[in-house]
Sequence to fold (307 residues):
Amino acid sequence: GASFPNPIYQKWAEAARGAINIQVNYQSVGSGAGINQIRNRTVDFGGTDAPVPEADLDAAKLVQVPTVMGGVTIVMNVPGIDSGKLKLDGNTAADIFRGAITKWNDPAIAKLNPGVKLPDLAITVSHRSDGSGTTYAFSNYLAKQSMAFKRDVGAGNTVNWPSNAVGGKGNPGVAANVQKIKGSIGYVDIADAMKNNMSFVALKNKAGNFIVPNQDAVADAAAGANFKVKGMAPDLLDQTHKNAWPITTATYVLAYENGADAAKQKGVVDFFTWSLNNGQKMAEELGFVPLPASVVKMVEAEMKSIR
Fold:
């Protein structure tokens, strides 16, 4: 499934093998593939950053629970501008990613960045080429900021990026393109951006503050969210907390309500129960944000319906 949680699922799998004798093979092939494979019943569980709607969960007889939280961050490769020193608001970011702003010294960017020496350099947009929950979160955020983005590009796992934009497979593919191409801008999860030592954009949140993405800002965005909804997938985008990171998301596991193999069904429950209770520090070290303790208890209760 999703590439976003892959680093922590691999870490949990390695630790769980020794601790509870469960072997997990997770393949980072994107949220779209994760959803398709569990619908086709070819895997024991699927991973997705784009939550499956309640009606679809009921129709496919699937259980959905969150595992960790994170954020999608805008990363850039602009010579002479340090990480966190370039400010964007949602509407200007939307205009860049729909191809309406094409130069780094555009007046709209300059207005948000007085005193910053912006180069006369073409902007290259880097995006996911595969069906992606990271794209789902990012495009839904930009569509909330800009009707023009919603009209031109859309919102979902795959969208209509500008024809001159550059695609990359998985978050690592986007990160590699941004690092390689001068003047490029892209979106990856915070964990991948931290791992690759990338330059962040400071983004204006709903409270009007420019925020540099970090784990505290993600936790603040999730603080007021209601996870009691079916599928446990509240909208974490553009939350009102003064320090909230605007593009906060959770990642989810999909499992069968009634699986054909009782031992594997139990294995899925045991693996994620153990990981959520014993793997939070590992998650933090990799740049993820653990679920609040109250939400972990809700996940454990929800997983009782996996049989």
